[in-house]
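Thread title: Can someone regenerate the structure for this chain?

I was given the following input by a collaborator and told the matching structure tokens would be attached. They weren't. Posting the sequence so someone can regenerate them.
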Amino acid sequence: MRQSKGFTLIELLAVLVLLSVVALIAFPQVEKYISQSRKDANQTEISNIIAATKNWEADNRMKIPDNGETYTLTLGELIDGGYIGEVENHETNAKMSRSTTITITNNNETYEYKVTIS
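Best answer:
Regenerated them for you:
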């Protein structure tokens, strides 16, 4: 009886089928983690924008809204003032628009910040 030195076609096909099944199971999970990571990175960028806005407020006390009022500035103003650098939108892999707005609302001396990405 002669002994073969390689794999049979059936063995190779079985391995390919097994790898395909593993890939079909793993790919959606990997895609989900990548998508969540992009969302988390964007949230971090928004937190950085809010921190830069607070620094801007310290230098621009006259523009801080009175109770019940709002003030809106743009990301471009923060960049031009040196409060933050260019910001990346991780979902689109492009720089965030300089026309992105940051709205500051004063509710009884409690400030709320809303970033609207444009």
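Residues 75 and 94 are 15 Å apart (CA to CA).
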